[in-house]
Amino acid sequence: MSALAAVAASGTAIAVLLVNGTGASAAEAPVNLGTAANFSVLAGSTVTNTGPSFLAQSLGVSPGNTAPGFPPGIVAGEIHLADAVALQAKNDLTTAYNDAAGRTPFTILPAELGGTTLTPGVYRLGAAQLTGTLTLNSQGDPAAVFIFQIESTLTTASNSSVVFINGASPCNVYWQVGSSATIGTGTRFMGNILAQTSITMNTGATLQGRALAQTGAVTLDTNTINAPVCLQPTGTPTQTPTGTPTGQPTGTPTGTPTGTPTGTPTGTPTGTPTGTPTGTPTGQPTGTPTGQPTGTPTGQPTGTPTGQPTAAPTRTALPVTGGSGGSGLLPVLTGIGSIAVATGAALLLLYRRRTSES
């Protein structure tokens, strides 16, 4: 580049900074890669590899369906060739590419990035060249975003590098390349390369990020592509409440029952189920059974028993208890006579009664 051209480029950059009024310090949101974020390498036509390259994430090709060189290349994730997963990732890549290309405001930079230190923001270049070291300073913000809008090509010289200071994260660095990117031999590159056409990584180049090409091929030669690290804040964000939100109940919500719900049956039944008689069954006889005879049985004889002997009792000899001369016999005979008279009277009375009844 001539001295005149360099001066012109610098003047243009200053003019853009003055017009935009914000420069590169404007805060940017990350570019959403969608499912393309699951891939170390994504290509439109093919992926070719030479040597023991290593991909920390997946490899995908769509609409192409070839990826020669694996093995000896190693894919730690999955390989998707012209399938639905690869197609979705390619669609998400297109969305991300358009997002990165359309970010404003931006700062215009000269083509050579080597020897430069940049702060977070959006930068636009015609064709980008990296010789030596590019330093990205996040200014203490691990979520800082760097977007490079490159109209045509991105090329790095051998053994060039991108380095970070003050907590910058490769996860939030995006290189939107209008045609193709070539990463030189032994280069240590950082960020997500979103190329319209193709990406070539020369021998021994490493990338902490992703090589994503929309329409062309990705060519590898003994390369290592590691997933980009997304740094997190080291402490709780200052915007986060330092304690429990003031609207949070300070104790158990007052609407919560203070004990066992009062609607619980008061009733585990308080006694034997209510259907059980509370006393002696009501069918229990209340007195002496009504069938009990109320008086003397009606079959009781109403007169002198009919079985009364019909003859005088058999006489039994009684001992003579008196003295000599038979004086003790007279009372006995007198008693017998009395009995006989009484018996006769009774028989006569019975005779008369039967006669009168007949």
UniProtKB/TrEMBL annotation:
Residues 318-358 form the Gram-positive cocci surface proteins LPxTG domain. InterPro entries: Ice-bd_prot (IPR021884), LPXTG_anchor (IPR019931), PT (IPR006970). Residues 1-26 form the signal peptide. PROSITE patterns: GRAM_POS_ANCHORING. It comes from the Bacteria. Belongs to the ice-binding protein family. This is DUF3494 domain-containing protein. The lineage of its organism: Bacteria, Bacillati, Actinomycetota, Actinomycetes, Micromonosporales.
